[in-house]
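Hello again, I could really use a second opinion on something today. I've dropped the whole record in just underneath, so have a look.
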Amino acid sequence: MITNPGTFLLLVLAGIGAGLTGATAGLASLVSYPALLAAGLPPVTANVTNTVAMLGTTAGAAAGARPELAGQRRNLVPLCLITTVGGACGGLVLLLTPSDAFTAIVPWLIGGASIVLIAGPRLRRLAEGAEHHGLSPATAVAAFFIGVYGGYFGAAAGVLMLALLVSVWSQPLARTNAAKNLVTGSANLLAAIVFACTGKVVWAAALAVCLGSLAGSWLGSNLVRRLPATPLRIGIGIAGLGLAVVLAFS
């Protein structure tokens, strides 16, 4: 379906935009998924191709946020394992079941997560010190289901994860955002492998978006380091609410 260099270049540019918004706001698929649809891919094909392509966002974000990721291994390793399993389950759900029932609740999930993100500091006081006592069962369960959602559909999975982590971790937003990028990327990993084995991935499109997202996410991770935390958190929350409204009406 990707038959000319112009379309390939446009998808690379969309990938840059997706990587930039994904690393800063967790909204990568808001850019890349419509671009794949515009390139002529059917919805399910665009979804599985997008999941594979978003591995570039994870790699670029991790490379750009190495200072912020330092010292977070104790919490990140179990979270990544949990979301990896969740993402694989979500990928299987996408391939084996009709999507209508699940996607009906997607706007509510994104809208709720956006509100949680905006109110994050107040909610965090209820879970003060959670990061000093390891991964709580409630956080693990929530992370698993976000992983399922990430493997199934993915749009704004980063907003969901950032809302969860902001509400339970007392640390600078740039560090939490870096952790979010890695954890949500892990949810894509096994889902991407599952999709790659189905024959539904359009590899030229996946490559184009992946190359762009690699560069865009590296840039985004460096940008987050320089942005003030509170306006960024509120801006991400407002963008998530906007996406929830768009998805609800579409």
Observations:
- The chain has a mean pLDDT of 82.
